[in-house]
Write a structure and sequence with these properties.
- By secondary structure, the protein is of the alpha+beta class.
- The protein has one domain.
- The protein has 6 helices and 8 strands.
- Strands 1, 2, 3, 4, 5, 6, 7 and 8 form an 8-stranded mixed beta sheet that branches.
- Strand 4, helix 5 and strand 5 form a beta-alpha-beta unit.
- Helix 3 packs antiparallel against helix 4.
- The longest helix has 19 residues.
- The radius of gyration is 17 Å and the shape is globular.
- The protein starts with 12 loop residues before the first helix and ends with a helix.
């Protein structure tokens, strides 16, 4: 099969957003399998109402006063407050613009990387296309799998792609080299409780 990669070109994560190839083809070219399923994601059963109200109240109070028309603006207004609230709630490390370099097909900067004693979560923030953004997220998750090669834990790498108003999760089963995209999406701020439940549930290692 003809390679989707151009000979002699070094690919960064952001290049995967521009590739027009189907997700399955891109992931297969990196040596992994791909599936779309209804994921049974880890959950935190009880989320503090104060935590939800803190983020949603701030969002609704400032949104009418600002223009959210760029990727950077969405990260600041819709995404960063959610992640900052998570690290106030749980003992986890949040790395922002985390650099990774594996080879000439996998290098660049990950927008957000959560690391706890239990799991990893790669989070990619995009302005527009959720599906093309997922291609970039997939490349980043695969890069982190290779970066963590030889580590017994975690056995999975979790990921989330968000355009601010919508979140979609994924999981990479490291042993099987299988990347699974969740068929479901979550809306922000309407599904904020569920977003918190999943992110915190993953980081706590909940089943």
């Amino acid at each position: 099969m003809k390679s989707i990669f151009k000979e002699g070109k070094k690919y960064t994560f952001s290049d995967y957003f521009e590739l027009g190839n189907p997700t399955e083809e891109i992931i297969r070219s990196l040596g992994y399998a791909f599936s779309t399923q209804a994921l049974d994601l880890p959950r935190k059963d009880t989320i503090s109402r104060e935590l939800i109200e803190q983020v949603s109240t701030t969002y609704y109070s400032i949104l009418p006063k600002i223009s959210v028309n760029s990727e950077t603006a969405k990260r600041e207004v819709m995404i960063a407050p959610v992640l900052h609230a998570v690290i106030q709630y749980i003992n986890a490390r949040l790395n922002i613009e985390y650099p990774v370099s594996i080879n000439d097909k996998l290098s660049g900067t990950i927008d957000y990387l959560f690391r706890s004693s239990q799991e990893l979560i790669v989070i990619e923030a995009k302005k527009g296309d959720l599906d093309r953004g997922f291609n970039q997220l997939a490349a980043e998750m695969i890069a982190m799998d290779m970066y963590e090669e030889g580590q017994i834990d975690p056995t999975k790498v979790y990921g989330a792609i968000t355009i601010g108003e919508v979140w979609r999760f994924a999981v990479l089963e490291r042993k099987e080299k299988l990347l699974i995209k969740d068929i479901h999406t979550f809306r922000f701020p309407e599904d904020l409780t569920e977003i918190f439940s999943v992110v915190i549930g993953i980081l706590e290692g909940n089943n």
